[in-house]
Each structure stands twice: as structure tokens, then as C-alpha cells.
């Protein structure tokens, strides 16, 4: 970065931290380009602490285990790993329609063409139209209008 630091960088970083807290996110990364040899690369993250509490209560002696059965095949219900999953390219807030009260861009069962707008992700007051990566049918919509999303979060599945 140049010799003169930008005055707004501190307030920009504070705004990122606030966005992180308000949307219950764990990490946010942004790069600002000021000029050819002048940029700011910021990563703001926080650690979520999970507290597990175990209570020890007297228990009777365990019963004999039944005969071993083969474990069932694991079912992969992770929508992000499904073929045709459309994931969020950024952290932000999802909007399913172009404006409040308007019809949604797409609904479950709709046929979409490649490049057609599926939804909007608002990030840093910028409305980013998310296009369909390929033509197909909208099988599932995995998010709700106005919901916060993280980078890589599955948004919908197109078959």
C-alpha cells in the first residue's frame, strides 16, 4: 500500500466486523483495489465457541450388545455436494426477487437457461445478480428470501 494510508480503511474494517457479527458469519475476506500498486486485502474472522456439558448420572450395567449388523450406507444429504448445486460466490444477503413485492426470479420446477438470473446476493450495498451456470430445471431452492449466506453456501440445485 502507498505511504499515505487511506483514512476510510479503519471504518471499512469496522463495517466488515459489524457485518460478520450481524449475520452470524465466521469469516469474511475482501480485497479493495485503489490503484495499480495500491490495494487493501482484509480478512476478518471470529471463532465460535461451542460448550458441551455432560452430566454423569448413575446408570445400570449395560445390557449385552445384540449381534452385529452391517452399518447402513451413509446418505449424502449435503446439498453443496449434489450435482447441479449452485453455490454463493460471496458473503451477503439473498434476495429472490428484483425488488420487494415483485415475483421471484425462479421457483422450484422452473426451467432456466444458462446465464439467467436466479437470485441476487447483496454484499456491501451492492446487488450482485447470480446467473444460472447451466440450463436445466430448478430442483430445490435451499435458501429463503432475506437470509444471510456465506461464501460457498448452497443456494439451489439445478438438474
TrEMBL record:
Sequence ranges assigned to domain Lipoyl-binding in this UniProt record: 83-159
Compositional bias per record (Pro residues), positions renumbered to this chain: 59-73
Region (Disordered): 53-92
Gene3D superfamilies hit by this protein: 2.40.50.100
Any one GO BP annotation for this protein: fatty acid biosynthetic process
GO CC field: acetyl-CoA carboxylase complex
Pfam families for the chain: Biotin_lipoyl
Associated pathway: Lipid metabolism; fatty acid biosynthesis
Keyword annotations: Biotin, Fatty acid biosynthesis, Fatty acid metabolism, Lipid biosynthesis, Lipid metabolism
Gene Ontology molecular function terms on file: acetyl-CoA carboxylase activity
Protein purpose: This protein is a component of the acetyl coenzyme A carboxylase complex; first, biotin carboxylase catalyzes the carboxylation of the carrier protein and then the transcarboxylase transfers the carboxyl group to form malonyl-CoA.
PANTHER family referenced in this protein's UniProt entry, alphabetically: OXALOACETATE DECARBOXYLASE ALPHA CHAIN (PTHR45266:SF3)
Protein name per UniProt: Biotin carboxyl carrier protein of acetyl-CoA carboxylase
Species annotation: Palleronia salina
Amino acid at each position: 500500500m502507498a505511504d499515505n494510508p487511506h483514512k476510510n480503511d479503519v471504518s471499512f474494517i469496522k463495517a466488515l466486523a459489524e457485518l460478520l457479527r450481524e449475520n452470524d458469519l465466521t469469516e469474511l475476506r475482501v480485497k479493495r483495489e485503489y490503484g495499480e500498486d495500491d490495494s487493501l486485502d482484509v480478512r476478518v474472522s471470529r471463532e465460535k465457541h461451542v460448550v458441551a456439558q455432560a452430566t454423569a448420572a448413575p446408570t445400570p450395567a449395560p445390557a449385552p450388545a445384540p449381534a452385529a449388523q452391517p452399518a447402513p450406507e451413509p446418505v449424502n444429504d449435503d446439498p453443496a455436494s449434489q450435482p447441479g448445486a449452485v453455490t454463493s460466490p460471496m458473503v451477503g444477503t439473498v434476495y429472490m426477487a428484483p425488488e420487494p413485492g415483485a415475483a421471484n426470479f425462479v421457483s422450484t420446477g422452473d426451467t432456466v437457461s444458462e446465464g439467467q438470473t436466479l437470485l441476487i446476493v447483496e454484499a456491501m450495498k451492492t446487488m450482485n445478480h447470480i446467473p444460472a451456470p447451466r440450463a436445466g430445471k430448478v430442483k430445490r431452492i435451499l435458501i429463503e428470501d432475506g437470509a444471510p449466506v456465506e461464501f460457498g453456501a448452497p443456494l439451489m440445485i439445478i438438474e
